[in-house]
Amino acid sequence: MITIFASWALVTALFFTISNGQCPDEVALYNYNLRTASANNTWFLVPVPKQAVQSALDTAYGTGLVTLTDLPANDASLFPRGFDSTTHHPVLVSAMYQDDIRMGAAKIQGPLLGGGLNVPNGVEGAAVDIHQLSERESATASTLLEGFFLRLGLFIPNNAAFQRNDNNILSNTAAWLVASNPVSGPGYAPTAYDFQFTEQASFSLYTAKLFKSVINQASILSGPDFIANLCQRNQYYFNNDTSTMTPVTGNVTFGPAADGLGVQMQSTMQKASSDGSGLYLDHEGFTGCGQNVGFNPENCDAAAANVDQSAL
């Protein structure tokens, strides 16, 4: 699953982009010294074999340094149909389109595209970050920045939260831009994930409560911050008329850049799918525009305890 830029340019011409209406950044006023944004994101929860999830964590943090904590699979307020936590663990994969990004008197110019993969660890603990993609980061390696492994991302669409294809399916693609060749093309960008999805009337497999719980978990930071037991809260608020959660169902395909620290032929998440292709069929997520507040790093116990209950 290696992405060729020239092919993407041809395919994109066949689509027109849409997105949820971009909601206002209504939290900046109350969080003047913190980073805030209008976050128009899509999230999916994908059950992956536990052994593969643990292997991805071992690669990211070191063998045995972070172990999985099951989510309460028998809690019907989270899993209406239950969840097989003996063999699988849900991973949270996201596509991000942020705008109106502010910190104090400063405002970042233009929108910011991104995405990421992390692992919910229980519902009251801290989530484990595998990697983040951003359109404004280093390309040649997984760069450790402020406790997160960041990669330069390439996104389709490149100007909206998602796009509607000719077959009326919504989609989003993220890749790791390893090598750019703007002069003669093509470049080299292994795929991290593909989303193909449609809207649905209501949640079925999971609940809004579960999604709010896992996306608002503090993230365990990496590198020196991991040794110092630091975590960071990124709170998302979906609790007013401008930030409605829209349930979606569809397929998630993980590619070679879904996890790991360097360039590889297949990722752990990809190999763990039923046929080894990375395709995970018929999973549930949601899309919506909420207000985001990024807090400063703090002790992980304090970060878990300080999650803003009004975001849940």
Automatic annotation (TrEMBL):
The organism's place on the tree of life at top rank: Eukaryota
Keywords tagged on the record: Signal
Keyword Signal recorded: yes
Signal sequence bounds: 1-21
Protein known as: Heme haloperoxidase family profile domain-containing protein
Species per Swiss-Prot/TrEMBL record: Friedmanniomyces endolithicus
Lineage, uppermost ranks: Eukaryota, Fungi, Dikarya, Ascomycota, Pezizomycotina
